[in-house]
Design a protein that fits this description.
Chains A, B: Pfam families: Peptidase_S51. 2 copies of one chain form a homodimer. Chain A has helices at 22-28, 48-59, 75-81, 92-102, 104-113, 123-126, 174-181, and strands at residues 3-7, 34-38, 65-68, 85-87, 118-121, 155-157, 189-191, 197-201, 204-208, 213-216, 223-225. In chain A, the strands form 2 sheets. A 7-stranded mixed beta sheet of chain A has the order 3-2-4-5-1-8-9. A 4-stranded mixed beta sheet of chain A has the order 6-7-10-11, with no helix packed on it. In chain A, helix 3 packs parallel to helix 5. Chain A has 7 helices and 11 strands. In chain A, strand 6 (155-157), helix 7 (174-181) and strand 7 (189-191) form a beta-alpha-beta unit.
Chain lengths: 235, 235
């Protein structure tokens, strides 16, 4: 049975890394002693080692030891054998490029289908959708494909940002960008605000956290989905 | 001799379409009676016809007739024969995909090198750089390449946005995104604020408008370049 936490962000403003998710993660990873961390998205260009250390420091609180995927001779095989997996945020183009280059995309998809508990934040959540095409990131690397894990049957927009009411900036709002996406793509897009996450257990998908999420569907007005909603119907 | 206006935005807050550029465009296109408009970026999903009409309405003020690239049997050939060219803003991934699909990327590059006066705004400016990898847009379409016209020997970030001082949003700032780009790419990136444009004549590149631009170079602190600066040295 699939078991995922798909979080909009790793960190809330004024909080510490993954802190707001601690109770949920204690439950999610309760039978795990070790975790493979996928550091490929490298936020701000941080090294794989430094990023993995940051994550290991957090998971020490849960008595879970962390090893970075980059530390294994075969990262793809490491994912097959992993007791638990976390993919951190950063740049989605870089992450997806590395997932394909290392063969991890395929073994990670299988591991998730086989029930390995998974945590994603930001870019690590983006890849849980059908494609990475609703990322907010810059295309700093050309990936071989935009297709991602499809662990949920729609796309995600993490760090969803409402239009700023007093903005004089003429660049597109997030909503305009997603509307453009729907000119060419049919799948729903779920805008997850910071502090929201999806709890996936088998075919059940629950919206967690205190905030509503914003749902965009092709040829329809956007809808607000209340915190706590069951999204199992969404595809 | 190359002759380009590369504008951050088509429209200033509270202004009309291309209005702030009118004096510059009167000079830029002073010997032109007709212009080919490239509508492929389709902002907000607008149709090619509607987008071309918006542009034609503006250029009527300059007594220039406008035809959309999509109206020609061979858009690529139309670019070779064009008296002047304007590429409008919208989604850069969509624009670049269409430029490759139609063969316009190649003929447009040659037309610019041969001195056909060119105007770009937003996505239409992004493609003047070496690659489209510093766009702000969503990857709604998978293009065959990120390589663009290279009409200037660096990359552009239109609609450059300074970090908001009171923001509690944890998504990456524009500066962080460009820093990530420089982990993997060496070319300079020029952040053009709304209201700024580059005036390119042969090898001379001048920064126009009232605002400074922000220059990002690999392994260096960002710099502010004053309005009016000569950027011909930049590569």
């Amino acid at each position: 049975m699939k078991k995922l936490i798909i979080a909009s962000t790793s960190t809330l403003h004024g909080g510490n890394y993954l802190e707001y998710l601690l109770p949920a993660l204690q439950d999610h990873f309760k039978n795990c002693k070790s975790l493979v961390f996928i550091p490929y998205a490298r936020p701000g260009g941080i090294s794989h080692d430094d990023y993995t250390k940051r994550v290991a420091d957090f998971f020490a609180k849960l008595s879970i030891t962390v090893k970075g995927a980059h530390e294994f001779e075969s990262p793809a095989a490491a994912l097959t054998d992993a007791e638990a997996v976390f993919t951190g945020g950063g740049n989605t183009f870089l992450l997806v490029s590395q997932l394909y280059k290392t063969g991890v995309m395929t073994t990670l998809e299988k591991a998730i289908q086989n029930g390995t508990p998974y945590l994603g934040s930001s870019a690590g959540s983006n890849i849980c959708g059908l494609t990475m095409q609703t990322t907010n990131d810059m295309p700093i690397i050309y990936p071989p494909s935009f297709t991602t894990l499809g662990a949920v049957p729609f796309n995600l927009n993490p760090h969803y940002l409402d239009p700023l009411p007093d903005s004089t900036h003429m660049g597109e709002t997030r909503e305009t960008r997603i509307k453009e996406f729907h000119q060419f793509n049919t799948q729903p897009v779920l805008g997850l605000r910071e502090g929201s996450w999806l709890d996936v257990k088998g075919n059940t998908i629950l919206l967690k956290g205190d905030l509503p999420a914003r749902l965009f569907r092709q040829n329809a007005e956007p809808e607000e989905l209340e915190a706590g909603s069951d999204l199992s119907w969404l595809k």
